[in-house]
Amino acid sequence: MKLRKILVAGMFASASLMSSAAWSATDIQWWHAMGGRLGEVVNEIAAKYNASQSTYNLVATYKGGYEDTMTAGIAAFRAKQQPNIIQIFDAGAATIINAKGATVPVADLMAKHSGGFDISDYIAGVRYFYADSDGKMIGMPFNSSTPLLYYNKDAFAKAGIANPPSTWEELEAMAPKLKEAGYVALAQSHSPWIFSENFHSRHNIQLATGNNGYDSTDVKILYNNDHMKMHWSKVKEWLDKGWYGFYGRAWGDNQDAFVQKKVAMWLGSSGSFGGLTKSADFKFGASFLPYWKSIIAEPKGTFIGGAALFAMSGKSEEENKGVADFLAFLTQPEMQYFWHQETGYVPITNAAYDLAKKEGYYNSTPDAEIGIQQLNQPGGEWTKGYRLGYYVQIRDVMYKHFDDIFSGKASVDDAFSAMEEESNDLLARFHATYN
Amino acid sequence: MKRVQFEHSPIPYLFIAPQIIIIVVFFLWPAAQAIYQSFLLEDAFGLSSQFVWFKNYSDTVFSTSWLQAAGFTVVFSTLVTLLSLAIALLLAVKANEVIHGARTYKTTLMWAYAIAPPVAGLMGNLMFHPLIGDLYKLMNAIGWDFNHKLDAFDASFVVILISVWKQVSVNFIFFLSGLQGIPHSVVEAATMDCKNATRRFWTITFPLLAPTTFFLMVINITYAFFETFGIIDTTTRGAPGGATNTLVYKVFQDGFRGADLGGSSAQSVVLMLIVLALTVVQFRFIERKVHY
Amino acid sequence: MNTINWRLIYTHTVLIIGVIFMSLPVWVAFATSTHDAETILRNGLQFWPGTHFFETYREVLFVEGGVMKSVLGTTMLKNSLILGIGFAVGKVIISMLAAYAIVYFRFRLAAPLFWIIFMTLLLPLEVRIIPSYEVMAGLNLLDTHTGLIVPLIASATGTFFFRQFFMSVPDELLEAARLDGATPWRFFVDILIPLSKTMIAAILIIMFVVGWNQYLWPLIMTTKEENYTLVIGIKQIYQVLAEGGELPQYQKAFALTILATLPPVLVVLVFQNWFVKGLVESEK
Fold it and tell me: Any idea what the Cα angle at residue B242 is, between residues B165 and A267, rounded to 5°?
């Protein structure tokens, strides 16, 4: 009797041990800012990863927009409740990267646990934005896009224009024709990103001291330069002539203007074409971001916007392995291609780009390739991006003064001087926090 | 204070303990930390910090953007308070007079209270949307060249309108109950003494409503200073050009969006002192005129 | 005779305009929510109901991915309800006890404790949110209903309200009770609480709405999407609207808005009689 009881007990014990081993996958917490359809694709990625292996269980949680997610991450870190992976956007890069000890660089993580990390695997335009001044990648670009020009083909036909402008000079020439056909020529959705940061990259102009901010936090912003002021004076001129429309600071407001056929051309992101396909009832095309021939003869590439995934520190070795494993999974060509197709964001590895080309994706959807092509255009000294602290506030300062330029409340010179002063105050404050 | 009270009993300490404990743990402790943070300059993640005395205060509090926000906050709070009180008072008086449909009027005028500030902002945003908003089209149709994305006055208009809309319900409820609290005998005597309804209102009813009005004034100013950032966040976000930035929204921007904890803590302390001063002023100078 | 009629017309006109001003936005929100996204995008807000009522509301409430992939509308509704009711009930209990202590007892710390309570009105939650979060994390109360509700109870509004009321209760009541030999506890339970019924109803309603409408605190406190509340769902849709890149789902935003407004409105309606009477008692 007793022996049987012991045997039965033993069986139960070993059975439960085995089952608990099967269900003791390590949880990896991933906080992201992808809402709506993008969030659905993120969940699909997590599901695919979990189905592909049983050691780790990836839990993806939507924490609100970019700023909300960053704040949640900060609060969590301070309370020692940080997730394993967090998605931080371009304006927050300086905050998280300069906080030494807040994250483990992905290059190190993957070198240690995923059998190596080679930055040349990644396409040129994405490599350095989230890297340190030595070129080591700290955050892995996740949803990367770059500014592109979208144009309404029907409107162009109506106005008798064959091709989209490749330079701003060309745009100026065709604007009156578009106006006659009943359209405002141009609108755009993110003045700091498109008309300032990438403006500098496209024309290969330095936008901050200290190697665009990468070398130190003791830097000053250089937006108050003649080229920028010339450009903005032109934009204001266009606004007054009815060639340019400003529909508010929100991204969606300006995109809507394009969808509603009020404007013939719109500067958006390479990721926008997916949404446009669904909402626009006219033929549209994508083209490169225009530049001023008067400033530069051969334009340089642009850099990425969007966000990157950072591995937060203070987690166990086992969990770090899981993070590296997931990142390796994410950077497989098939996964990158999947993400690229579903969302319109660019694939970040050369292998993935090659795969997409091989699969003929760009034959059916040529617009999808324009963003990558632009990112692959020759880089210059100043196409790497920027690293500036308190950049969320600086962008707010920029928006504020751009508003004033548009409304006529301030002249371009005054607005830029004020912008420079306030931005540099913010940068000085940021620098002071680290010294 | 009450003349008759219990003495020598452990009960008060027992009864007041839960609230005090919660306040100490969840208010005083975090508040103290927030105040302490206002004297620090530290990175968002708390990995490096240094004590900087009043640097945060001088950096952020007297910058041009803060002063601009302060100016707008004053204008905004005054207008929102006055307008929502006035409209609510008018509606309450009328609702009190009417007999037919009194219940319906009272109900439909009360329910806006239940709407969350972000929701009110969202609705207002869509109604004023340049592309699909009917109010936007209405404005332009009556000849007002309305563009709240570019024009500071128009943007202020939108934000004030939505805030007033939300607040009218609360004030309405309190005013109504205040009116209903006036004993019938007084109302009858007043009607006999004074035939003119308007005069009757200003000489008798309104003074009797003074305690309610005073209470509401304090509450409304607090609302305008603190609770409206949800509406601003979902409508103008301080645009254009910082014209619709209020002080509390700046706190939210710098702390929550920009991860500048020291700066935003300093601003909140200043904000707290301002509201404290305002409350004290109200109690000292205005309450004197209120007859209980 | 004529003067009375004019006055009546004027009164009703004012009231009707008031009702339209206050209710029209809510009606338009409802009407718009019953259309599909493309219609709204092309033609703007709608004044008359459309044909997509069931589809939209079904999607929002019952379909996964209606709002956010892993959370149903009904789940968020449940979370909001728990928050609203828990907060309201908790607030009533704690405030009544504290107010009773302050008003009816003479004890040394009465005045300073009262001022401490008063101070909570001056520093809103948004400002102390990150330190509050740290405290909660330290106590292991993240992602719990307790953690969501308890810190919100720290503010003074309820205590103030009950204090006003208790101050207005005639002293004779207490004298009579003491003559009868009542202990403080008996007085509280047998006499004061029944007397305060309408006040309790009033505070329950107000605080339910306050708890229901919370956004920032639940967003930060919950790390799992299944704990999200309804207001968070709305804000997320709005976020997607603002960031563009997709067909804006205005109709879902409005549907959620209506849903988020219903329970508080129902609560206000059902209790409105008690509510109004409750406020009357305290304004003496």
Answer: 100
